[in-house]
Amino acid sequence: MAHVSAAERRPQLIKAAIDFMTREGVAAGSTRAIAAELGVAQATVHYTFGTKEGLYRAVMEQLTQDLLAQVEQAAPADGGFEETLGALAAALWRTVREQPASHQLLTELTMFALRSPALREALDAHYRGVIEVTARLITEAAERTGRPLAQPADTIARFFLAGFDGLTLQHLSTLDDEAEHTCLQAFVSAAVAMAGGRLELVAVPVAAS
Asked: Which CATH number is associated with domain 59-195?
């Protein structure tokens, strides 16, 4: 069998871990089980990542990168401020509706990381990354439209994401499309008001499932 370098094996193992833990849950994601998912020796996982926590950290980083890439691609280049926040919310929500298992896995990994000192840095990096990207997109939209922000972009981003996180957990727990869309519009509208706009319902173009 041809030798496969650690650099080549790393993304394969990350994908195998995501596939396995999406299907079976984080609790079942031992290095032995993930190695078996890819059909390699358990030692290969330890050689590539050092520990199970090292592999989990890489999985969190990959899930975060994938999520941020989808959101950044959805940001309108010339829309108004309200339109931009609505488009960001719609893009995020689309990932929840189309990839609920990925969001469930990220939620499980977050809970696991809270009890694992070895993963706290990865968890902090995840939230910093999401907040920084969201704050940057809000800042760019405000500058493009000439809207002075009443609160720091970082604060608005944290508020926006807190609402989104809560609604995501509700979606994973119980489905109610109509109520979810109403709540989505409400917290986007509140974020716009926090930025200095009027408190009125902002349209969020969520496609039907």
From this structure: 1.10.357.10
